[in-house]
Amino acid sequence: MTRRTKTALYWIIGIATSLAGVAIVRLVAPQFDAKPSAILGSIGHIVALGGLVVIAFGVRQRVWAQSAENGAEAKSDSEKPDDSP
User: 26: which residues sit within 8 A by CB, 6+ positions away?
Assistant: First the structure.
């Protein structure tokens, strides 16, 4: 799986999870009475936050992979022998 595919997968899963949480809060929770509505609202907020965490995790993975690539390139350049006496 390429890095671009992994990044897209994290974004798709994160957005879908966040939208599901928002749908619970905005569409499902108001249909119930006070206590179940509060519980569903809390669950929806947690699910929406979880979606944002998934997106953040994907971004972190991408940044780490990019910095590892850049570090490997920089390291190979620095390992060249020095011609100075």
Answer: 44
DSSP, res 84:
-
**Whether the predicted model's global pTM rises above the 0.70 cut:** yes
Q: Annotate 12-77 with DSSP letters as a single string.
A: HHHHHHHHHHHHIIIIIGGGS-HHHHHHHHHHHHHHHHHHHHHHHHHHHHHHHHHHHHHHHHHHHH
**Element containing residue 9 per DSSP (H, E):** helix 3-23
Could you list the pLDDT tens digit for every one of the 85 residues in the chain?
787 888 899 999 999 999 999 999 999 999 999 999 999 999 999 999 999 999 999 999 889 888 888 887 766 555 555 555 5
